[in-house]
Amino acid sequence: MNKFHGTGVALVTPFNADGTVDYPGLKNLINHLVEGKVEYLVSLGTTGEASTLNKSDKKKIWEFTAEINDGRLPLVAGIGGNDTAELAQSIKDFEVSGYDAILSASPYYNKPTQEGIYQHYKAVSEASALPVFLYNVPGRTGSNVSPETTCRLANDFKNIIGTKEASGSFDQFNQILRDKPADFMLISGDDPVAMPMIALGAVGVISVVGNALPQQLSDMIRLCLNGDFKAAAPLHLDLIEFTRLIFAEGNPGGVKAALKQLGICDDYVRLPLVQVSENLRKAIIAETSRITA
């Protein structure tokens, strides 16, 4: 599974002013990331505003992404939900052609127990014809996937091959790394801590920053994976202010402002999200211009 070592990018979904999907913008973005030498793409994760897309939208976006990618990079589909039965059916119905794995966020809002989380992912594992990545993001879901549950799932289901960890807890990362099967992948779900997580033993990042700055980010991640943290450190530090700015008013409004500045796609989002404030937009434009000059 080395194809998932390095930089994965959680693709934004470009929109037109009327809220429809901007497919030319999505094509531009995919080509931008391929040219930026990232390792793989994630379609319709949180950054892709999947929660405001209907089933028809999602099907078209997945198909279009696979068509434009044309086998150039591994593809991961973000398929999550808080109704386990409905999610399992969606995974069974998913057209897997062109895709290499599924990323599935822990159920949101319900706040299940650890046993509930385990049974949910058991159903996901049994429904999926593709390898599965867990996704732990307690700041969005309202519940944490404990290290014990993560490692229990990793040991019990061979097609659960890794976890995107966005808990921000290094105590949790340490426990997972200590107790997981040898080939189970820990992946950073937060751009700012990707470097220290790799120093502990993570195999890369699924990034938001990489939408706009794929070359800069993937260069840094590869240096980290090669153990050259001295060379990686200046690249990491150079991205700190950009990273802070693009998350200042939530995701993906910030990174879409950067993508607009780069001429990749526009910065429209779907309600309840809104575009970033004018002052923040100016700061993002200035920082994007500085880094890409």
Work out the number of β strands.
8
The CATH homologous superfamily is termed Aldolase class I
CATH class: Alpha Beta
- Per CATH, which architecture? Alpha-Beta Barrel
Question: What is Rg?
Answer: 18 Å
SSE pattern, N- to C-terminal: EHEHEHEHEHHEHEHEHHHHH
Number of domains: 1
Strand content: 5-15%
Protein name: 4-hydroxy-tetrahydrodipicolinate synthase
Function: Catalyzes the condensation of (S)-aspartate-beta-semialdehyde [(S)-ASA] and pyruvate to 4-hydroxy-tetrahydrodipicolinate (HTPA).
Organism: Pedobacter gandavensis
Binding site for pyruvate: 47, 206
Could you characterize what this model shows?
The protein has 293 residues and is α/β, with parallel strands linked by helices. It is built from 13 helices and eight strands. The chain has helices at 23-35, 55-69, 84-93, 114-127, 138-141, 147-156, 170-179, 194-200, 214-225, 229-238, 240-246, 253-261, 278-292; strands spanning 6-10, 40-43, 75-78, 101-105, 132-136, 160-165, 185-188, 204-207. It has an eight-stranded parallel beta sheet. Keywords: Amino-acid biosynthesis, Cytoplasm, Diaminopimelate biosynthesis, Lyase, Lysine biosynthesis, Schiff base. Its EC number is 4.3.3.7.
